[in-house]
Structures
1.
Amino acid sequence: MRSVGTPGEILGLIRRGEATTRNAVAGATGLARSTVAGRIDRLIADGLISEDGDAPSTGGRPPALLAFNRHAGVVLVADLGATHGRLAVTDLAGEPMAEVAVDLDIAAGPEAVLHRVEAEFDALLDTTNRGGDAVSAIGIGVPGPVEFAAGRAVNPPIMPGWHGYPIRDRLSARFGAPCLVDNDVNIMALGEHWVAAPRPDNLLFVKVGTGIGSGLILDGCLHRGAQGAAGDIGHVQIAAAEGVLCRCGNEGCLEAVAGGRALADQLAGRGAATATSRDVVRLAAAGDHIAVSAIREAGRRIGRVLASMVNILNPESIVVGGDVAEAGEHLLAGIREAVYRRSTALATAHLRVTTSTLGDRAGITGAAAMAIEHVLDPIVVDASLLAAKGATA
Ligand SMILES: [Zn+2]
């Protein structure tokens, strides 16, 4: 669809590099040059774009180049896990300016955890010499189901005390900026999609950690589903798990035999010193045959479920992340084997199955992407320019 050229849409053209001169913006939008000039002046006055004349000269006066000003604001991001978290301040291109990894206990409840998050954000802002008024947006990931529109966790199994807690409203009020909250797997999917080059329209991110979950990017957008529960593949029933009790209360779930916790339990039952998924990965990295074959079999089981998803959704990319993915080729080999054998030839013709390139930074990268794409959405930009105009009128 042809852009109609509101200031927010013009900002998008400049940001994506699709139009970087006034003439190009006029050409792309079909607007009169005088209209384009007024809107660009407005974006420059607001600090969102800058204009310089450093374009290479081909004789005559070179056209001034328009560029998105990534330093027009900062974004606060946090990826909160069960026992640790990663927090950062990024610029409006998602580039981290300061970052910290901390131990925290999500089960300590929202008051204690968010108090800590706020203190860490204050400290990170201090180190970047940006005041709180520079905060454009906040993006948070939590290890449980989230009602995205309300910014609240909903019956999160490993987050006692968080059900219904207004995470979004608290942080938004504290820092005076919009806040977006989503579950950890969704923000990891957004992070992998954000850095992929070329960026695929359809990407399936699978997290294999203590549990198993997935995030779906369909036609370029994160698919959350009606209640935000889309992609919860850990609790898909598989034959190999028949009779095995899952932490969700059902029997037969994929996660109950192929998740990191299940692998640790299986190996511990055979005498290995494995308490967590990380222990399993460490053992496999040391060449332990039993650990390697357990991870590979887990890969095949996960792959069978993914094969069904490939047949239904036809993604061009599957990215595997989470602790157990750090076992690298062992998990990936099992997944690939099952996906390529059980999906249709057409669906796998151009399918790539890879491990995460971001590792444990996928979450904050995606939280930044989520917050930035919200605050730079043309509708949001136009509304805030209008509000600023009203305030100064
Ligand atoms: Zn289950």
2.
Amino acid sequence: MNKIALITGSSSGIGKETAIGLAKQNFDLILHGRDIEKLDNLSDFIKKNYPSTKIFASAADFGTFEGIRNFADFIKQKFSKIDVLINNAGTVSPVFQLTEDGFERTFAVNHLSYFYLTGLLIDQLLNSSEGRIINISSQLHFQGKIHFDDLNLTNNFDSIRAYNQSKLANVLFTYHLSRKLSKTKITVNAVHPGAVNTGLDRDLKGTYKFLWSLSKPFQLKPAQGAETSIFMACSHKVKGVTGKYYVKKEEKPSSDFSYNQEAAARLWELSEQMCGVNY
Ligand SMILES: NC(=O)c1ccc[n+]([C@@H]2O[C@H](COP(=O)([O-])OP(=O)(O)OC[C@H]3O[C@@H](n4cnc5c(N)ncnc54)[C@H](OP(=O)(O)O)[C@@H]3O)[C@@H](O)[C@H]2O)c1
């Protein structure tokens, strides 16, 4: 029986290429994005090229807890086991915006969705003989700071400040979860995919849009950006490896702050309170 991988944000960019790459490696797939039409097109492409791949696709907005909860409920009804969860969905909010749950949008989509969805699907991952959780972070986490007194950046919003905070949260979450799951068969690792030419900057404006556009010619193609995610999902070289940060398929040190266990525990506790889930 094929292994099953769930890739969030697989409707475009790195996630889409990760899904195609895993189909090539004989995984069955759970696809996710916001737009069902994009997911249907991807399903058709994969079915045509990798006919033995079983595909299940579901659309959900991860900017709301309700969206995440409904998505997870749907998945749990269909799958008792998930072998690989790739938390990949991501955004850069161009303006300060609170979700309906009251959290800054970039933090909500990039960190709280990883935290919440993983908690809701933890039993499915425990049912795998070798569950792997892969959190897509970014090298920009090195510039990140967790603004514990104002996680929403209400007083100090800036698109990239919010993005960097969320990507640092991804690494702190990875390390804390790997410690919590150390006595289980689940591994948890973080990935920087490289600077990749995707639509991530689509909503940015002004200077950030301009600076991002300057780097476009030097950025990787989405398929190249997916290589480390695919490696972490299926390579025997990382069997049993947990609590690490990977770049270009190699373990690398993450920022000094990302190893701060006290900060990781504090973020965990706050995330539990925000999402209303304990695991
Ligand atoms: N591109 C880079 O240079 C780079 C570098 C480092 C890290 N990353 C990380 O890589 C991951 C993938 O990004 P990408 O570059 O491939 O960007 P992308 O092409 O914009 O893909 C982002 C994916 O996330 C989904 N998504 C966005 N907001 C969502 C929401 N509110 N609810 C549910 N799904 C949502 C998108 O769905 P739609 O198709 O509906 O938009 C899309 O499938 C992100 O976590 C990003 O932080 C990217």
